[in-house]
Design brief:
single chain, about 300 residues, 4-stranded mixed β-sheet, globular
Length: about 300
């Protein structure tokens, strides 16, 4: 089973050797790794050239410096510039991988085995952990019904069917909801050490600070079509996680500000109806039960696909 990795990166000299070295040490190596250097101004280019010279399955794509770091749509634009260099039909799986991670040796082998065991899994990942200043390793908050944006591992057929990633903020949630809408399963695990990876830059942060990242998340929820009751509950839950109180308030303000300004929302009424049904179930029954119900209901979509393929 072959897989392609595409890694957009910008100014990752501080972290990238961790990812490069732990991918090279994988028990199952990628058939190809395309790294898109998105206009870096630090030593990223120099480091990439060093690794490319040693490993022929690493390809570097260089983009012009656009003057700023863009953690949402800019990352996906860079991803697609890398994807344009290959036909994903040549690979069984495709992975969007950030360059600020440290992966266990059997990370990809474990993901492939679990996807082979369950052909309905369309996208999956392990879960991120971060190292605190005192050396303590703690889990980042990551829901099990989503594959993690820093390491999205996709079955190629699923990636093609959902239309890939949208080039907007919240791309890494929209894709998982679309997976379920089409009958696939999206998930993440950390039940074994082989699926617990270190994230060297906290999730939800941004080039302008973590509060900006939280506000961006609120806007992303608005764009995705999330209802106001659900986002209020989600923001209240965020109050209990660092940064305490103000993190949740920033999420809520990002949503409300977008609503007041009548910002653009995703133009897909069927999709909005689908996620709002899920969100109401999550509020009333809890996320785990809501995802279980949705996956059971969408099983018929999966079975119809199998009949059509036959």
């Amino acid at each position: 089973m072959t897989y392609l990795i595409i890694s957009p990166c910008r100014n990752e000299a501080e972290y990238m050797r961790n990812t490069l070295d732990t991918v090279i040490a994988q028990s199952v190596l990628p058939a190809k790794w395309i790294i898109v250097n998105d206009g870096s101004t630090d030593d990223t280019s120099k480091i990439l050239k060093e690794y490319q010279a040693k490993y022929k399955w690493i390809e570097i794509v260089n983009r012009e410096n656009r003057g700023n770091r863009s953690v949402g749509p800019g990352v996906i634009e860079a991803f697609y510039e890398g994807l344009d260099k290959e036909s994903i039909d040549n690979f069984d799986f495709i992975c969007k991988l950030d360059l600020d991670l440290r992966l266990p040796e059997k990370y990809f082998e474990t993901l492939i085995n679990r996807m082979n065991d369950n052909p309905r899994i369309g996208t999956c990942s392990g879960k991120p952990y971060m190292v605190l200043a005192d050396g303590k390793i703690v889990a980042e908050k990551c829901d099990s019904e989503m594959s993690v944006g820093a390491s999205k591992f996709y079955r190629t057929d699923c990636f093609k069917e959902i239309g890939g990633f949208v080039r907007r903020v919240m791309w890494d949630a929209i894709d998982c909801h679309r997976c379920r809408m089409y009958g696939w399963i999206a998930c993440s695990w950390d039940d074994v050490p082989d699926l617990q990876f270190i994230h060297l830059r906290p999730m939800g942060s941004s080039q302008n600070g973590i509060l900006t990242g939280r506000m961006r998340h609120g806007y992303g929820q608005y764009y995705m079509g999330t209802g106001i009751i659900y986002i209020t509950a989600a923001a209240a839950n965020r109050i209990l996680h660092p940064p305490l109180i103000i993190g949740g308030l920033a999420v809520m303000w990002g949503y409300l500000r977008s609503m007041l300004l009548r910002e653009e929302r995703i133009d897909d009424k069927k999709f909005i109806k689908f996620i709002r049904k899920y969100q109401w179930q999550a509020l009333l029954k809890g996320k785990q039960k809501a995802v279980e119900n949705i996956n059971n209901e969408q099983k018929v979509v999966w079975e119809q696909r199998k009949v059509t393929q036959i």
